[in-house]
Amino acid sequence: MLTVLHISDLHCGPPFVRRVGEAALASAAALQPDCIVASGDFTQRAKPEQFVEARQFLDALPRVPLVVCPGNHDVPLYRIIERLRSPLGLYRQYIADELDSVLRLEGVTIVSLNSTAPYTAISNGRIHRHQLEFCQRAFETADEEEARIVVAHHHFAPAPDYEKAEVMPKARRALDVFAELKVDMILGGHLHRAYIGNSLDVYPGGDRQHGMIIVQSGTTTSRRGRAREREKNTFNLIRVDHRTIRITHYMYFDAAGGFEPFSRHIFPRARLGHLGGDDGN
Questions:
Q1: What is the SS3 assignment for 79?
Q2: pTM value?
Q3: pLDDT in tens, 44-91
Q4: Fewest CB atoms within 10 Å of the CB: 31, 123, 150, 203?
């Protein structure tokens, strides 16, 4: 069994809530994940001091493999010359130099994609054709039994009550490619509202048998929650075995002084289809 901690949208800077950040670090230590995914928006306005704060937070997490991707807030919005010349320069300095990356662990391959589009679609992001080819190269060497996970900051499918329904341009093209590559699950952020469901909820695509699991994390440590998670903080804990993917959605509660399980979801592994359902054991 592989355990993945999925956090997102730290928004270090004015929106960051320190007591919630400390609680997230405590939960991360207690849950003992095998790897951690942080799906973008490490800062509020891509300032050096905010990246320093984000780096300190990441360094305080358990020492396990870390998968990251940049978010639109990690690109300077108002510093126009910097955005045009080096939109992710500070991200690469403080968070990770690679913008598209691959992590291989026993039983899983995780591909992280940079969905920021500093010049064309700052808010909605974009996945380009060359990145889909990068995915194909990464997964073509994966074992048939391995779980296949894609990470990107921007969402491919909106949550039902999301306040802005737009998704990435060419999102359906990407979903079709991911389905062909037998991707099990897509992890993301950006919405500031968690959503756990299936790609078939919003797009039938070419593969109408099982689709892919969509896992969006809300904002883990900031005051910028939206919709039903307004001013709330969440993260996901994902457990993957050879038959199922189990996702526990955690939410911060003041009364508890920390994060507690809020909902649980069980999905069959895509390669098994209906045969992969939970058998109760």
A1: coil
A2: 0.93
A3: 999 999 999 999 999 999 999 999 999 999 999 888 889 889 999 999
A4: 123
Checking 202-211 for CB contacts under 8 A at 24+ apart, the result is: 202/157, 202/158, 203/157, 203/172, 203/175, 205/172, 205/175, 205/176, 205/179, 206/176, 206/179, 206/180, 207/179, 207/180, 209/273, 210/268, 210/270, 210/273, 211/179
Distance CA 17, CA 224 (A): 10
Report whether 199 contacts 156 (CB < 8 A): yes
Q: Which residue has the tokens 């928004």?
A: 11
Is residue 197 situated within a structural domain?
Answer: yes
- Split into its structural domains, the chain has a count of 1
CATH of residue 42's domain is 3.60.21.10
CA 120: distance to chain centroid? 22
278 vs 113 pLDDT, higher one: 113
Q: What is the pLDDT of residue 272?
A: 62
Residue 70 CB partners (closer than 8 Å, separation 6+): 40, 42, 88, 91, 95, 99, 114, 116, 153
Can you tell me the distance from the alpha carbon of 153 to that of 101, in angstroms, rounded to the nearest whole number? 13
Q: Which residue segment(s) compose the domain that 35 sits in?
A: 2-276
What is the CB neighbour count within 10 angstroms for residue 203? 16
Residue, of 136 and 160, whose pLDDT is higher: 136
Q: For residue 23, which of 263, 232, 246, 192 has the smallest C-alpha distance? A: 232
> Which neighbouring-strand residues pair with 228?
none
Dig out the tokens for 145 from the structure: 């039994």
Report which of 192, 191, 185 is spatially closest to residue 240, judged by C-alpha positions.
185
User: Does 281 reside within a domain?
Assistant: no
pLDDT computed for residue 121 by the predictor: 62
